[in-house]
Design goal:
Structural class: mainly alpha
Helix content: over 70%
Order of helices and strands: HHHHHHHHHH
Largest sheet: none
Length: about 260
């Protein structure tokens, strides 16, 4: 488990660095140059007194630093959720295996637990630390020591509940990112409104270009942040659904393939 934690920590740091590089590269080479060209063209047409309606370009909407930060956090959160989803699907594939070979009508006695534990203990370390092998081993060991089927059922339920709590706690970083993204959008709103108020004297003189640009920063940052937050929350709830189903299906697997066959003479 310690090795797994170290891997996830290094993975998260690496994912953040990669997200920063990718998003910043896209902004430097594509979004900001196009946004500046569009704004320059609009300013030139306005100075010439030409009557026109400015197009709401996607490059202009995305050009500010708050939107860039939101996209970096979005990619970071998606990479973290992608790793956890991959782990969940890999563990779910283990439910297709029959670790306990018991046909209908056969019983498992406390004396048989060592025999049934050997195939599970022989699994590689990476597979043995998955949820299903851990639950099966805990159930067999509890049955061997207590010779009580109800204790085995409680052990299965306890391991599954602990795993559910662990999976939920590991989403803390994703929840923080989902909270931070709208907050960054609101920071852009405050910055834009502050800049607009600082240029209010120019609006009084008839030059409203600076005020409208600053207000555009305020509204665009909030708009982008809220849209990204909706996407992140949707993906996070889908991941939680996958993890909850994994825990429930593992508990049902143990009850159907192990606990119901246990018998005490």
């Amino acid at each position: 488990m310690k090795k797994s934690f170290s891997f996830e920590f290094v993975y998260q740091i690496a994912a953040l660095i990669v997200a920063v590089i990718i998003v910043h590269l896209i902004y430097v080479t594509l979004i900001r140059p196009n946004a500046e060209a569009i704004l320059t063209e609009q300013a030139t047409r306005a100075e010439q007194g030409e009557a026109f309606v400015p197009d709401r370009s996607l490059f202009v909407v995305l050009r500010d630093y708050e939107q860039e930060s939101c996209f970096i956090l979005m990619l970071w959160a998606m990479s973290i959720m992608g790793l956890k989803a991959r782990n969940s699907f890999r563990e779910r594939n283990m439910l297709d295996n029959r670790f306990i070979e018991v046909s209908e009508g056969m019983s498992i006695l406390p004396e048989d637990t060592r025999e049934y534990s050997r195939p599970i203990q022989a699994l590689p370390d990476t597979a043995r630390h998955n949820l299903l092998p851990r639950v099966l081993l805990a159930a067999l060991q509890r049955f061997s020591s207590t010779r009580n089927v109800q204790d085995v059922s409680d052990a299965v339920r306890g391991v599954c509940e602990t795993e559910s709590d662990r999976l939920d706690s590991e989403l803390a970083m994703v929840r923080y990112i989902a909270w931070a993204i709208p907050s960054i959008g609101f920071i852009g709103t405050v910055r834009g409104i502050g800049d607009a108020l600082g240029q209010a004297y120019r609006a009084v003189e008839g030059d409203i270009a600076g005020v409208t640009t600053s207000l555009g920063v305020a509204f665009n940052s909030t708009f982008v942040a809220l849209v990204i937050s909706i996407v992140i929350m949707f993906l996070m709830h889908q991941l939680q659904l996958v993890q909850e189903r994994l825990v429930l299906d593992t508990q049902n697997y143990c009850n159907d393939n192990l606990v119901r066959h246990m018998q005490v003479r």
